[in-house]
Specification:
Two copies of one chain form a homodimer.
Chain A (H helix, E strand, L loop, with lengths): L6 E5 L4 H13 L4 E4 L7 H6 L8 E4 L2 E4 L1 H11 L11 H17 L1 H9 L2 H27 L11 H10 L2 H8 L10 H11 L2 H6 L3 H20 L2
Parallel strand pairs in A: 1-2
Antiparallel strand pairs in A: 1-3, 3-4
Helix pairs in contact in A: 1-3, 1-7, 4-6, 4-7, 5-6, 7-9, 8-11
InterPro entries (chains A, B): Glutathione-S-Trfase_C-like (IPR010987), Glutathione-S-Trfase_C_sf (IPR036282), Glutathione_S-Trfase (IPR040079), Glutathione_S-Trfase_N (IPR004045), GST_C_Tau (IPR045074), Omega/Tau-like (IPR045073), Thioredoxin-like_sf (IPR036249)
Subcellular location (chains A, B): Cytoplasm, Cytosol
GO cellular component, one term (chains A, B): cytosol
């Protein structure tokens, strides 16, 4: 493997966004120094490296900082060309992977966070919205699957990493919320895709212990419910 | 130039997003068939090609449709490698261009639309928010400029196209709103950058007539004010 330089990865163990970047680093076999960030009390380094968004993940490569999951994933693919490719080589297939990664990133994360932080009618509305978006994603992934262009049929890449970012903790989601999102009968393509990803050795190795994630998500849910009750 | 294939571009003359894609096509010297879309009465083709967002721009290359400005811009750069490069070749510089393109795309468009569609206190709040974001962008672009990595110092590319998407019609914005956003004293880097872009021959050739844009934006503003008054 080519000289990889010094890689520092600022994450937070339960952050879904950090989870996807971690998977990409592990898929490429890149060694890195890991810095766990406390998002309640952000480090000076995090504020220096990501002054615009002040969020994890941040990747620092030979002193240069890169922020934003999708930007980092592309950077990883373009910098370490050895190891598996995270985007297909065909421009049209790359465009499809980027389109759907952006879709998941822009349309599914916020609504998932909302479901965690709310109850009753507001939560139900968010759940309905989530199902609609999952339906769109299911149809899109079915098309990619038919074209032989969905990650788990070929290489695992950026699109898989983003999907895994969101649903890698699906068992903990189910336990905390009592809701199954990716149901086989309703979303057969998404279900098979998720199962294929979580069964990968590289994924199994990096997943946090189930009970730890359940407790972390429960804390996140409780603080969200508390703050929405007080506004 | 390599065989370019059949290129069809679905746009709308006043759409800022379409403006950026048009610039990229023109920069690369790609011949295309243009389809003007009526966004009030969307064509079956637009709904077929972009079923997820149902928006322009859409690029159709040899029958394959690509949607979403940033995805299209990357596709154009990767497909037609002759002509100017729209992203730098260094991965870190590419990451910076992507980061800031994403910032403009996600944080500046919606707030601009809001300023057009509102009045009074709501508009003032949006204007304040816009200035804050422009301040962040000014600082970011200053850093890129110092590094010799801002488009108008080198090649014009994706970041310039996105910035031009938003502010290419700045004279019409000023006439309709009575507000100057990119003021030299306040945002010297953004101001020089915008002036450099609008002075490019390729940009001058593609810009719609000023009065036509003023009228289009005035109609957009009037319909926005009307609908916000009725809710």
């Amino acid at each position: 493997m080519a000289e990889q330089g010094k890689v520092i990865f600022h994450g937070m163990w339960a952050s879904p966004f950090a989870r996807g970047v971690k998977l990409a680093l592990n898929l490429k076999g890149i060694s890195y120094e890991y810095v766990e960030e406390d998002l309640v009390n952000k480090s000076d380094l995090l504020l220096k490296y990501n002054p615009v968004h002040k969020k994890v993940p941040v990747l620092v490569h030979n002193g240069k900082a890169i922020a934003e999951s999708l930007v980092i994933l592309e950077y990883i693919d373009e910098t370490w060309k050895d190891g598996p490719k995270l985007l297909p080589s065909d421009p049209y297939k790359r465009a499809q992977a980027r389109f759907w990664s952006k879709f998941i990133h822009e349309q599914l994360f916020e609504i998932t966070f909302l479901i965690f932080k709310t109850d009753g009618e507001v939560q139900q509305k968010a759940i309905d919205g989530m199902h609609e978006k999952l339906n769109t994603l299911e149809n899109g992934m079915k098309t990619l699957l038919v074209q032989g262009n969905l990650g788990f049929e070929n290489d695992v890449g950026i699109l898989d990493a983003i999907f895994y970012s969101l649903f890698g903790g699906y068992k903990a989601h189910e336990e905390v919320l009592g809701i199954k999102f990716i149901v086989a009968e309703k979303f057969p393509v998404l279900f098979s895709w998720l199962m294929a990803i979580v069964e990968l050795d590289v994924v199994k190795k990096q997943a946090p212990p189930h009970q730890q994630l359940v407790q972390g998500l429960q804390r996140y849910r409780n603080s969200g419910l508390k703050s929405s009750a007080s506004t």
